[in-house]
Amino acid sequence: MKEIEPIENFVARVRTRLNRHRAINAALWSIAIGLGVLVAIALTYILRGHSVPTYWYAATALTVVFAAMVAGLLRRLSQDDAAHFADGFFDLKDSVISAREFARGDRQDGFRKLDIAKTEKTVKKLEPAQMRYHYPKKLATVCAVLLVACTLSAFKKPSLAVQQELALEEQTLQLTEEFSEKILEELEALEKGVEDPEERELLQANELRKWVDELEKTKDQKEAMRQMANLEKKITRMANKLAQKNTEQLLAKLAKELDQEQAHKELAKKLKQQKYKEAGKDLKSLKPKATKLSERKKELAKLKSAAHRMAAAARASKARTKGKNGESGNGAASEELANLMESLDADVGELEGELGELERAESKGQLTDADLANAEMMKASISDKLGQFDERLGRLSAAKNLQKKLLAMSKKLGQCQGCLAGQCESPFAVPGGQRPGVGTVESRREEKDALVDNGQTTQLKGIKGQGPSLT
Predict the structure, then answer these.
(1) 178-233 per-position pLDDT tens digit
(2) Cβ–Cβ contacts within 10 Å for residue 88, how many?
(3) Which residues are within 8 A (CB) of 302 and not within 5 positions of it... i.e. 6 or more apart?
């Protein structure tokens, strides 16, 4: 359509100017809507006492830019729309539209050519710059007010209550992270510190590690305390499973019985102090070792008194538990130990009788190898029972030691809950200062001033030994 190229150029210039004006309006509306939404979001934070997160401002800016671009593209006018506007704005009596329609037609008669030429001559005198942009003052004012509101909201600090809440959340997060690391270190130290094979066998390290790994970092104080309480409960339950109350009561009775014998007071003291492993070794050392019959009988006397006391303690323990419908925890283990103690007393009595028979047979010259072999079998049976008793006390000692360590860890978890609640310091905090009895006084100096006589002397008067006493 070369014959109407000046008209098309004019319409294109009009279209460009109109689209620019419409893009500015779209941008202003996008800014107004975006700032309005941002103000609404900011109010939801400010009314609750919080500061507005900065990411909302960045998100709003990006959204406004994108919305303005999309709205500007969607509101663009076509050539036909621009031609209609030009006819109306410049009062051209639809000449631009007519000329463009004539140019699209198949026939070109003289009237149409004349109309096109007249329209071209008219538009050459017109300037699209005459189409001035009408600035939307109200919309711009709204944008300015919203922008000021958003700017002020960006500098709004959280309230004192919210600051305290945020500080508590930050402290809780740091404490949960610290406690998780410290508890894991405690567990590793516990594993390395367990040297007794029996104690190591009782320690369920994998289960403990699994429980510790379940601890999660959190800002929620109640959730953090719940996790610590749950772990404390599990470890306490594990420690309580190691308790052997009935067996300890039986050994306490044995300590009272042995304390009545001067020869066994040291053994009784170890049992009272719950040094079960050492007590087991001492009992095991009482097994007969001598080879001569005369020496065996003397050696057996100390073991016999201990065995009698053990049997008495066992009978007293059985009498106490008799008539109960059930036993708690380790009743079966306590009963087995009591039976072992009674059986040991019976074996010692049989061996004592056998040694008496052997002495009489030896005095008569009728001692046989079969008699000696029978005595050796009894001796081996007693040694075996003493070994079993030592083994049981060793396991009890290992369980007791491990129970103390687990309860100590459980206590620290309880202190962790107190620390999270703000009631005490962290159980893993390293206290400052120096060891007891050591202080630091920086004002002290090594030099000493000489004593100077100032002339003020005091003279005592009176006679020694006379006058009222001050005391």
Answers:
(1) 999 999 988 888 888 888 888 888 888 889 889 988 888 999 999 999 999 999 99
(2) 12
(3) 263, 286
Return the CA Rg of the chain: 51
Question: Residue 190's closest CA among 228, 238, 227?
Answer: 238
Query: Tokens 């050994």 — which residue?
Result: 251
Burial class (CB in 10 A: 0-12, 13-18, 19+), 358: buried
Please state, in angstroms and as integers, the Cα–Cα distance from residue 113 to each residue in 2, 101, 262, following that order: 13, 12, 144
Residues in the chain: 471
The contacts of residue 451 (CB under 8 Å, 6+ apart) are none
- Cα distance between residue 418 and residue 118, in whole Å: 95
The 10s digit of each residue's pLDDT in 53-92 is: 999 999 999 999 999 999 989 888 888 888 888 777 777 7
CB of 123 closer than 8 Å to CB of 96:
yes
Interatomic CA distance for residues 148 and 143, integer angstroms:
9
Per 3-state DSSP, the chain is made up of helix, strand and coil in percentages (nearest 5) of: 70, 0, 30
Sign of the Cα pseudo-torsion (439, 440, 443, 444, in order): positive
Query: Could you write out the DSSP letters of every residue in 154-183?
Result: HTPPPPHHHHHHHHHHHHHHHHHHHHHHHH
DSSP code of residue 427: T
What does DSSP assign to residue 451?
P
Are 30 and 141 in contact by the 8 Å Cβ rule? The answer is no
CA dist., res. 350 & res. 346, Å (int): 6
- pTM tops 0.90, yes or no: no
Query: Could you tell me if 44 and 30 are in contact, meaning their C-beta atoms sit under 8 angstroms apart?
Result: no
Among candidate residues 171, 173, 182, the one with its CA nearest the CA of residue 212: 182
User: What CA–CA distance (Å, rounded) separates 355 from 301?
Assistant: 12
Question: Could you tell me if 407 and 236 are in contact, meaning their C-beta atoms sit under 8 angstroms apart?
Answer: yes
Helix 5-46 to helix 95-104 angle (10° resolution) is 120
